[in-house]
Design a protein that fits this description.
Layout: H1 4-20, H2 26-57, H3 61-95, E1 99-100, H4 108-122, E2 129-131, E3 145-152, E4 159-165, E5 173-176, E6 183-186, H5 187-193, E7 203-214, H6 228-239, E8 244-250, H7 255-265, E9 272-275, H8 287-290, H9 315-321, E10 324-328, H10 334-345, E11 349-356, H11 364-374, E12 378-383, H12 391-404, E13 407-409, E14 416-417, E15 420-428, E16 431-439, E17 451-458, H13 461-476, E18 487-489, H14 493-509, E19 516-520, H15 526-538, E20 542-546, E21 563-568, E22 573-574, E23 577-581, E24 589-593, H16 599-603, E25 605-611, H17 615-631, E26 636-639, E27 645-647, H18 658-667, H19 679-689
Parallel strand pairs: 1-6, 8-9, 11-12, 12-13, 14-25, 17-22, 19-20, 20-21
Antiparallel strand pairs: 2-4, 3-4, 3-7, 5-6, 7-8, 10-17, 11-15, 15-16, 16-17, 18-25, 19-23, 21-26, 23-24, 24-25, 26-27
């Protein structure tokens, strides 16, 4: 098996390759670079933090050695990230007429223009924090950007230090100049250019941007928590001052100042990362919104709207006759919103139940649930308060839903509710009938435009009855329920997946047709990996699409030579999970769901993997989706036995790509009708971008 942490860094390296790729639109490359930075933040907050905790509690020297190896690999990636910005993207932006200036490139003309802007809009928001015997080192927030300032009293000659927080409320990328001379720079660079104005009477010796990353793994003892919502709010506040795991500081900072900072926050030298460019590259993503250059972005794409979904008022009639499968983002997420919105307004609907893991800031799904509750319907929302980095958003949604009259629950003790399910109970002539939405992605219309996912809308009684049982388990804390069609974690998802793998191995040993195809975000679980290797040894051809972390080592003679692992990265985030088993002697088994093949998904989360029972939909998945991933290799790289990834096709990204094929297929269908946003809505969008 490959190591999980090193596989994570390998994934980030493949994302960085998209930022380095000249065939990707220029501003999209900047966006990919910001994604690498964001991914690395989470890597340090969660994975490195976990290794450091193990090191503190264990005496085994291997833990220390492994930590140093991980830090060295991460350092190499950060250096490549900085080189991509400085040597590739900045010159390419300059050639495209987009001028980005570092703090050392702010000449007299730039300073003259920026000076009044600094005095008017930046200086009033700055708060210098002196550090001396009467002012101890301050508590610095996780991932907050700061300036370390070195000063000297001209009278006494005494040296002084101060820390200046860079305000998060101000835009991090600033524009100056007009028209043909317009340039961009960072807020921190502007502050450094005029920082002496914060310290009148003192000599400025230097200033350097730095940032601290802290352990952000949320821990709440649910057994002890009297109120889970309040306990999580308290823990989030504590995370702001969690144990530090990384110091990033500008590379020209003196060694003695870096050493002083490390000592002040309690970190070892190997946890310091000297940065040659922007300290927080995630903020560079805002440049995309500041530059009106659609020619430097992927072409505008409007999701297709299936003809049978064009009239929302007839959606339930359509689902009652046949299951409906939507492939996002190529097909619109609108019908899913309509499914919930129509239920909120339909007098025949008596109850709506939905799981909420992540959603958008202006969620039409939550608004529909609130409307349904106000309309007197029984609304039950399972809100996952521990969705990483979305905890505060979900707390706010929970409170709003409760105020509207919905019943809000937080799932089962010790488990995250990660499944994507909605159940609507409707009163019809023949009695109560259930309708369900099951998905691989969140109820988030925004990410549904950039994540690849599936939505199944069904009135199949055998499926909807089990969806009803799933909600009863979540709200009623039932014991160990039995599901026939749905594969539910933590109850039996792992066992049933392994049983399906073993069934293919048995078929191969008997000389019958066999085969496994699986598309997941991550493959980490040891028991599944062992089962796949046994299947490989039995002669089963195993085709895996693993976007990110993959701990299975393919191609090992006598062990995994029949296993092929590919990774697809591109314009859209590959998020859907698909599982196909040949099932010799019967129809192929095709499953979709919310779960990756990881221990956390099998044991510590409530997950739902569901079958595609409609023959025409199974045929579509096989012929249109799985076949496309197998044939269009331009956006795919194959994992080798040594852990490296190699392009599956010559001239990799210039070869036909699966995502391009899906876009082409969707373009033949009716486009989703997109209304122009109101002036008020455009204002809200601009504020969110800032």
């Amino acid at each position: 098996m490959f190591n999980r942490e090193l596989s994570w860094l390998s994934f980030d390296r493949r994302v960085l390759e998209l930022a380095e790729d000249d065939s990707v639109p220029l501003l999209e490359r900047v966006r990919f670079l910001s994604i690498v930075s964001s991914n690395l933040d989470e890597f340090f907050e969660i994975r490195v933090a976990g290794i450091m905790q193990q090191e503190e509690s264990a005496s085994h020297p291997a833990t220390r050695e492994f930590l140093l190896e991980v830090l060295e690999k991460a350092r190499s990636l950060v250096e490549a990230e900085q080189a991509c910005w400085k040597d590739r993207l900045v010159p390419a932006l300059e050639s495209a007429g987009i001028r980005f200036r570092s703090r050392h490139q702010l000449d007299d003309s730039a300073r003259k223009e920026l000076s009044p802007l600094f005095d008017r809009e930046i200086l009033p928001a700055l708060t210098p924090l002196a550090i001396d015997p009467s002012h101890p080192f301050p508590v610095l927030t996780n991932k907050g950007l700061y300036l370390l300032v070195l000063l000297r009293d001209p009278v006494s000659g005494e040296g002084r230090r101060a820390v200046v927080p860079v305000p998060r409320v101000l835009p991090r990328v600033l524009a100056y100049g007009a028209d043909h001379s317009r340039c961009f720079t960072l807020l921190s660079h502007v502050i450094q250019a005029f920082i002496d104005r914060l310290f009148p009477g003192l000599d400025l010796l230097g200033s350097w941007a730095f940032r601290i990353t802290r352990n952000s793994d949320l821990y709440v003892d649910e057994e002890e928590a009297g109120n889970l919502l309040e306990a999580i709010e308290d823990e989030i506040r504590n995370l702001r001052k969690g144990a530090p795991v990384r110091l990033e500081i500008e590379s020209d900072a003196p060694d003695e100042e870096t050493t002083w900072l490390l000592k002040s926050i309690g970190l070892k030298p190997e946890n310091a990362f000297r940065i040659t460019g922007p300290v927080n590259m995630m903020r560079l993503g805002s440049l995309v919104d500041l530059v009106a250059r659609p020619d430097l972005l992927y072409p505008t794409f409007i999701p297709a709207l299936p003809t049978e979904c064009a009239d929302p008022s007839r959606l339930y009639d359509r689902i009652s006759r046949q299951d409906l499968l939507l492939h996002h983002p190529y097909e619109s997420f609108g019908p899913v919103v309509d499914f919930i919105r129509q239920a909120a307004r339909d007098e025949s609907v008596v109850a709506i139940k939905l799981t909420l893991y992540r959603t958008s800031g202006d969620s039409p799904v939550v608004e529909a649930l609130k409307e349904a509750a106000r309309n007197g319907k029984q609304v039950t929302a399972l809100v996952e308060l521990r969705a990483r980095f979305d905890e505060l958003n979900n707390i706010e949604w929970a409170r709003q839903l409760e105020e509207a009259g919905a019943h809000v629950v937080y799932g089962l003790t010790g488990l995250k509710t990660h499944c994507k399910a909605c159940l609507v109970v409707r009163k019809e002539k023949a009695g109560l009938r259930r309708y369900a939405h099951l998905g691989t992605g969140n109820y988030n219309p925004r990410t549904a435009r950039i994540y690849t996912d599936f939505s199944l809308l069904t009135a199949d009684e055998e499926i909807t009855s089990e969806v009803g049982l799933l909600f009863n388990v979540l709200t009623g804390n039932l014991g160990r329920p039995k599901f026939r069609h749905l594969l539910i974690a933590p109850f039996e998802l792992s066992r049933r997946i392994i049983d399906l793998i073993e069934s293919e191995a048995s078929a191969a040993r008997s000389g019958r047709k066999s085969g496994i195809f699986a598309k997941v975000n991550s493959l980490v679980d040891p028991e599944v990996i062992e089962a796949l290797c046994r299947a490989s040894q039995a002669g089963v051809r195993v085709e895996l699409l693993v976007r990110g972390v993959c701990c299975l080592r393919p191609g090992v003679p006598g062990l995994s030579e029949n296993v092929r692992v590919r990774s697809v990265l591109g314009r859209f985030l590959e998020h859907s999970r698909i599982f196909r088993f040949e099932n010799s002697g019967g129809e192929p088994v095709i499953l979709l769901g919310s779960a990756d093949w990881m221990q956390r998904n099998f044991v510590r989360r409530v997950e739902c993997v569901f079958p595609v029972r409609d023959k025409s939909l199974r045929r579509r998945i096989e012929q249109e989706i799985i076949a496309t991933y197998a044939e269009r290799l331009g956006d795919a790289k194959e994992l080798r036995m040594d852990g490296s990834y190699e392009p599956c096709a010559p001239e990799a990204r210039r070869a036909p790509c699966a995502q391009d094929a899906f876009l082409s297929l969707a373009s033949r269908h009716q486009p989703e009708q997109v209304s122009a946003p109101s002036k008020k809505a455009r204002g809200r969008s601009a504020r969110r971008r800032r």
